[in-house]
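Hi W., the sodium ion complex you wanted:
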Amino acid sequence: MEAYTRNRSLFAKIESKLTRIESLIASISMVIMLVLSLLEIILRNFFHTGIPGASILIQYLVLWVSFFGAILAVRERHIKIDVAIAFVNDIWRRRLERPIFLFSTLVCGILFWHASRFWWDEWASSNPDERWVAALGIIFPVTFCLLMLHFALRAIIGPRSPKRVVK
Amino acid sequence: MTATIVIMLLALAALGVPLFIIIGAGGLVAVWSAGLDPAVLMIEMMRLATSPNLMAIPLFTLAGVVLSKGGAPERLIKLFTAGFGWMPGGLAVVVLITCAFFTALSGASGVTILALGGLLYPMLLREGYTKRFSLGLLTSSGSLGLLFPPSMVVLLYGIVAGVNIEQMFKAGFIPGVILLTMLALYSIFAGHKLEIKKHPFSWKVLKRAIRHGVWDLLLPVGIIVGLLGGYVTVTEAATCTAAYAIFLEMVIHRDLNPITQMPGFGKDRSLLEGIFREASVLSGSLMIILSVAMGLTNSMIDAQIPMKVMALLEQDVTSKMQFLMLLNLFLLLVGAVMDIFSATIVIVPLILPLAHRFGVDPIHLGIIFLANLEIGYMTPPVGINLFLASQRFKEPMLSLFRASLPFLFIMLLWLIMVTYVPTLSLWWQ
Amino acid sequence: DDTYILKFATLAPAGSTWMNVIKAWSEKVSKESQGRLQFKFYPGGVSGDEPDMLRKIKYGQLNGAAITGHGIGNIYSPARVLEMPFLFRTYAEVDYVRAKLMPEIQAGFRKNDYELLGWMEVGFVRIFSKTPINSMAELKKHRIWLWEGDPLATAFFAASGISPIPLPITEVFTSLSTGLIDTTLAPPLGAIALQWFTKTPYMTEDAMADGIGGLVVSSKFFNKLPKDLQGLLQRTGNEVSQQLLTETRKDNEKSVAVLQKNGITVTPAWKESETEINSIRDRAAADLAKSNYIPAEVYDRARKALVEFHQKK
Ligand code: NA
Ligand code: NA
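Structure:
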């Protein structure tokens, strides 16, 4: 964390604030998911009942937990097949970072646009009883929007010096 | 045009663009060139939300992070050393058996490495195994129990191919045990060559180790009894495992602080190093790939590409031997680029009629199919075990692939045995 | 001079009765149109669950589908009054009421951008379970599958005080194997086609409801076709759905015998009184009317038609 507070630029501050909020959402979703599914097990096995809508809520919480984790992974480490990077020296490696982040921003931006369109359609065409389920689906546009934002911030802030890479 | 784009995307991937961006971009290109609305990619993502065993991924991950951040590795290493340290390669054998068991009960969804990797990796290193051997062992162990009940993949094959599930499990038993034995023998050999220190066996030490580690031991015992006894489902097992792990580390052993370590509330690092957060990052970087990959698979189905490939294959094949050889090559390729669940749904209906024509039993075909796809877990570019191990151990995929080569070689030998000796799968008929 | 490709999806697996009949239909259409209208098939759920298929139709990836009541509910939900639980007991009742409602159902589909080419059935739905179910009270103790996002079944379970487990249909078999659920609802034919019966040794004598089905294409695709091809699709669609209807009824009858031969025990009719079961049905109907899923006047019309049928007899 020290590594980030040292960088006092406005964009670094925005990134840091965003990350805190996202961490909070990811952690809280994880706790709710665990508690809800424990409750469901107890109710179902000992009382032959359940919480209405809990299973669907849990299904979406899995996505909230995971996709917010994926957003946080932008600053840490996403899964890569960086085969060629082993043959590139350090200077070039840092030069490549900005274009890579820009490309990722672009792809997430396009996916964000289509996710929004799709989500809006789903929400508008859902019947009133199921509107809450459609509302939970907003995780898709939100995910791509935040991914886009983080990749853009990374592109603006630029490469980190090797010392400042967390872990 | 298409070829240019594919090559460009592969180059970008090689230079370090995150894999989900590459697959997402590939999905976009695929829908554009087919004249489809990119919103169909989102339909596929929605489908991911409804898959009922998905919940097991973040929860088993959470249990793994909790256990590995707590004192479980230390307790277990004492216990295993006391129990198996006397034999050469003892710990490696324990790793193989544990992973095989865990993979089966976690539905072969890839969580083995996440849940056990953090625990077993430091144990192996401390015992004196080389980094390379340890990484190779763990990377290839992640899919080892694929053929044992209650593996979800076997269930899925049975449904798609319309064969009896119990018979599938019966057929998979001996091949599964053979692979375990082959890898165990290699591990014993490696342990011998690496001159891993053998510990003299002592009842006193073992008893003390059991007393310390009894609560950890109860976890796998609970899962076996719960699952095989039919008391809990896979998702329930995942929930209970996570809850038990938290209880164990927070209440019984008090290795984890419920405020500063679980959510990560600290003085000036609020929430940034918490265990819940780490588990969500680990499962999230896998889930985002899964969700975009479903979009790409959809484009392949839409263009009926798998069907066309099979039609080509159909033209030149004349004998059963030739068919089986080509089938293996084809399936190894499929395993390289597809995950096992989509592959089962898409490929099995296509190869079934061909297998029938060449006199291959559908149950034997299932074992061949799953054996190939099991190898596919550790072949790039889409190798779930490589992804997970790369994420868990913070190592580049290429070096993990290199580390698992000896294990891959053994598995290929095993694949040949399973393919050309049908009796191994069909002895009970 | 233009050729049209109809991308057509269904849950029915390749090689099943349904898929064979539909394949024959496609060959007929292709032949009679001299190759100007051709089908491309996505069977066995490769395109996902029915709501997924309809989404893909909406965004133009698919053009048509053979769907059951679950999908029909997403197009024109009032049509599902025909599969209201415990409303119909015989095929004759169903046929009479359906004929009365058909014009408004067809109009309803068209208003929602679909062309209904033919009407069919999956048949009377039974309850399949791992342990015998002899009453509503016993049903409550089971882990029952709810087709995810199905308001009709949701309303029925809510009215009966049952908390079911929502899953997509593509996950039912594995969930039966893992124990996530121990009870499913299916017509006998479906239980065999999807292999569910291998996990559930008990089947109820009582049928819950008559599962409906339909052959649909999107209006977007249909309106693009020249008049002669539209006519061809409608005519042959209607013929093939008649054929599917009779074959399904025959197959369902045969399936009960096949199931019994495979060791399935049929549990006798439930102990609950007719009034009790009817009150559950009416509460569910009231619930569905509130959300306008099945408007009250549609339910009333269906019941009136039913009374009319019995008076005529
Ligand atoms: Na696994
Ligand atoms: Na692979």
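DSSP finds 21 helices and no strands in chain B.

W.
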